[in-house]
Design brief:
The chain has 18 helices and 6 strands. The strands form 2 sheets. A 3-stranded antiparallel sheet has the order 1-2-3. It has a 3-stranded antiparallel sheet with strand order 4-5-6. β2 and β3 form a beta hairpin. The longest helix is centred in the middle third of the chain and has 23 residues. The chain is globular, with a radius of gyration of 24 Å. The structure holds acetyl coenzyme *A. Acetyl coenzyme *A binds next to loops.
């Protein structure tokens, strides 16, 4: 690299010897990127980067993370501080609007979230149409897409996006709780305006019309923290999907529904469910967890230690540290003795000393302990990924908004290197 601190330039030497100068972009945390936007036009070459391991798809002012140092900050605020001092609604406001709200802004935002918590009564019929075995992620994504049918002005990006954003944040919580109630055959519980965001969700999940239900402040706090920890993670698979779909001009609801579907996969948000299934399999089969770890290391049946490893964190996941502590607190408060937690802790202890995991820089990620906390809160395993979606929603919205507001946004359209047949003549079927 050459040049002054402000204008760095990289040089690329092509096989034919031509030297191509490429500008370097530097972020506020001194991250460096070689800007190849003019490369194809200038040289005919493209870059190849499967899985986008080295490719920045955008600049962004929302979240900073340093995988080597285990740093995660939303709009400059460390995740540890937000988890301790903020709540989910305030953090959502911060992510979406760029600043912590003033007292007046917080009050208006909270009031709007409360006002928009109901879903159109006609949408209740949709829940009835799904079989009880439906995965709640299928229901959630379909319902979020359906919201665009109830608010058709969302198709026009010049309509009030703030209103759609508030509606979405509020209604997703109601949809998630309704889909759970439907799956267990209980009556739907309507939101209660006197309750805060997380308490209201717990109320809709666990209250029944025939009994009083009081939300425990400790569980409400735990849920707030869990959602804050999941609220954003810069250009991950689901967020990139939201940006990609949104870049075509698709409306907010459609873009977020696509993000929900991307999150569903077991290598992404589905991992918290996969962790519990793995721990349950070990417990019910009576397998020695050390033998299970040996199978993972020998890649038997392509086994992985679910909840371990991360594309970006190669040292530790700061969210997992907070969750491990919270897990102990919640289980102690509830008096729950969960054998799966004992297995998880033992596996973690062994894996962190094992050369296979150490050499590949595989550490517990956010999903290793979140599932155990959700179980303790009474949330069923197949709802875990829905909980993740609920938490990630402000992040998806913030990125969607940033993408829409950025005048440099172009439709996402990667290129490829073709490796198939060269041109050949069509052979009629009777001659093949
Ligand atoms: N258990 C065992 N081995 C693993 C694990 C794991 N959990 N994760 C990675 N490895 C191994 C791979 O087999 C590979 O080994 P090799 O070099 O011998 O081929 C090496 O480590 C690198 O793995 P990649 O899959 O190339 O790493 P990548 O960065 O692409 O994957 C991922 C990251 C998908 C998270 C991976 O670590 C994984 O599958 N973990 C388990 C699933 C999980 O917990 N996902 C949640 C991620 S966090 C989130 O989305 C919120």
């Amino acid at each position: 690299m050459a040049g002054s601190e402000k204008k760095l330039t990289a040089k690329l030497v092509l096989p034919e010897g031509k030297e191509v100068p490429l500008p370097v972009t530097v972020g506020t945390e001194d991250e460096h990127a070689i800007d190849i936007r003019s490369l194809r036009q200038d040289t005919g070459y493209i870059t190849l980067d499967t899985g986008y391991m080295n490719t920045g798809s955008t600049t962004s002012a929302i979240t900073y993370l340093d995988g080597e140092q285990g740093i995660l900050r939303y709009r400059g605020y460390p995740i540890e501080e937000l988890a301790e001092k903020s709540n989910f609604v305030e953090t959502a406001y911060l992510l979406i609007n760029g600043q912590l709200p003033t007292v007046a802004e917080r009050e208006v935002f909270g009031r709007m979230l409360t006002r928009h918590s109901l879903i159109h009564e006609d949408m209740h019929q949709f829940f009835a149409g799904y079989p009880p075995t439906s995965h709640p992620m299928a229901v959630l994504s379909a319902m979020v897409t359906s919201l665009s049918a109830y608010y058709p002005d969302s198709l026009d990006r010049n309509s009030s996006m703030d209103l759609h954003i508030t509606r979405l944040l509020s209604k997703v919580r109601t949809i998630a709780a309704f889909s759970y109630k439907k799956s267990i055959g209980q009556p739907l519980i309507y939101p209660k305006n006197s309750l805060n965001y997380c308490a209201n969700f717990l109320h809709m999940m666990f209250a029944v019309p025939s009994e009083d239900y009081e939300v425990s402040p400790i569980l409400e706090k735990a849920l707030n923290q869990l959602l804050i920890l999941h609220a954003d993670h810069e250009q991950n698979c689901s967020t990139s999907t939201v940006r990609m779909v949104g870049s075509s001009g698709a409306n907010l609801y459609a873009s977020i529904a696509a993000g929900i579907l991307a999150l569903w996969g077991p290598l992404h948000g589905g991992a918290n469910q996969a962790v519990i299934e793995m721990l349950e399999e070990i417990k019910t089969s009576g397998t020695d967890y050390k033998k299970f770890l040996d199978d993972v290391k020998n890649k038997r049946d392509n086994r992985r230690l679910m909840g371990f490893g991360h594309r970006v964190y190669k040292n530790f996941d700061p969210r997992a540290k907070i969750l491990k502590k919270m897990c102990d607190e919640v289980l102690t408060y509830l008096g729950v003795k969960d054998p799966l937690l004992d297995i998880a802790k033992s596996m973690e202890e062994v894996a962190l000393k094992d050369d296979y995991f150490v050499s590949k820089k595989l550490y517990p990620n956010v999903d290793f302990y979140s599932g155990i906390i959700y179980r303790a809160l009474g949330i069923p395993t197949n709802m875990f990924t829905v909980m993740f979606a609920l938490g990630r929603l402000p992040g998806w919205i913030a990125h969607w908004k940033e993408m829409v507001d950025d005048k440099d946004t172009k439709i996402g359209r990667p290129r490829q290197i073709y490796t198939g047949e060269r041109v050949r003549k069509y052979v009629p079927i009777d001659q093949r």
